[in-house]
Design a protein that fits this description.
heterodimer, A: 154 residues, alpha+beta, 4 strands, elongated, B: 166 residues
Chain lengths: 154, 166
């Protein structure tokens, strides 16, 4: 009986260490991966039909409030985001990445390659619980050209 | 009773306790890691000192001195007739707002080599929009290379919306 309890305890300890280490590794890298994945889900598309078909996938990654904020049906969000790219094929170029932060450019017929946007987020319980989106305007740099390297003018 | 004492000796109890403790920690791991990922990094002293001195300053001469003190790319000799070098002029383009007179700032986001701040007036009101700066420190401890910009919300319902497209 004593041996059995000891073996079970040791198995639990070993399993906990392995699962814990995996969880730490997975979620540490996953934070940035999830950010990039969400930006691509939102802004990389052939046309709006593809984007529309993706809404459930986006919803599964967000809290309800965030999904309402990012949804195609939110006209305020639509104007500032899809209004810039409209129904033209668009791809995302990530130019800067930190936990909770993705700075990206868009490859789209209507968008200057040097224009940059910032997608900021907080993940709680594996879901996007807070999202803020900005356009980077009035960029200034040092005489060496600064630290963002994308497009011709940056 | 004797049998229980035989089974649960000190070593076994210790092992069981450690196993239970690790099991509890395992359940908390995800939220601990998520919280750490959401935590902000400490802003380097040279950046906070620069912002603390530069933000409330009004005169071009003093602003130029502050920029020369903290930026490797700024020069005290290569200046235009107005007394400012390119680096100072560039920074002023971002930091000079039409919405009010900034007295101080608050840090909104701070990550490795990246900071976002909101300027704040004397009454403690935010002066949107946010200002972001990606920087790299030089060997001399100054800010070696940088890109500064304003962050304009894409959503007009955002409280930081300034009603002005730039």
């Amino acid at each position: 009986m004593k041996q059995f309890i000891r073996i079970v305890s040791i198995v639990i300890i070993v399993l906990c260490i392995f699962i814990g280490a995996y969880t730490v590794y997975f979620y540490s890298t996953d934070n940035s991966d999830l950010g990039v994945r969400m930006v691509c889900l939102l802004y990389e598309y052939e046309d709006f039909n593809e984007l529309d078909a993706r809404q459930e996938q986006i919803e599964s990654l967000c809290t309800q409030d965030v999904f309402e904020q990012l949804s195609l049906n939110n006209s305020d969000h639509f104007k500032g985001t899809y209004g810039r790219t409209q129904n033209f094929p668009t791809s995302v170029k990530v130019v800067f990445l930190r936990p909770g932060l993705v700075v990206y450019a868009l490859d789209n017929y209507l968008v200057y390659p040097s224009d940059l946007w910032c997608f900021e987020y907080t993940i709680t319980g594996g879901k996007f619980s807070e999202v803020r989106e900005y356009k980077l305007v009035g960029k200034v740099t040092d005489d060496k050209g600064g630290l963002f390297n994308v497009g011709e003018d940056t | 009773m004797k049998k229980i004492k035989e089974v649960f000796d000190l070593e076994t109890i210790a092992l069981v306790l450690v196993a239970l403790l690790l099991l509890c920690l395992l359940f908390l791991t995800r939220s601990i890691v998520e919280n750490r990922a959401n935590e902000y990094k400490v802003v380097p002293e040279v950046v906070t000192n620069f912002l603390t001195e530069f933000v409330p300053e009004r005169t071009l001469h003093a602003q130029q001195s502050i920029v020369v003190k903290y930026f490797a790319s700024a020069s005290s000799t290569d200046v235009d007739p107005d007394g400012a070098c390119d680096t100072t002029r560039n920074l002023l383009r971002v930091f000079r707002l039409n919405s009010g007179e900034p007295q101080t700032y608050r840090v909104c986001v701070s990550q490795h080599n990246y900071i976002e701040i909101m300027l704040v007036d004397a009454d403690g009101h935010d002066l949107p929009c946010r200002i972001g700066m990606l920087y790299r420190l030089s060997g001399s401890g100054k800010i070696g290379s940088f890109t500064a910009f304003r962050l304009l919300p894409v959503d007009a319902t955002d409280p930081e919306w300034t009603r002005v497209w730039m």
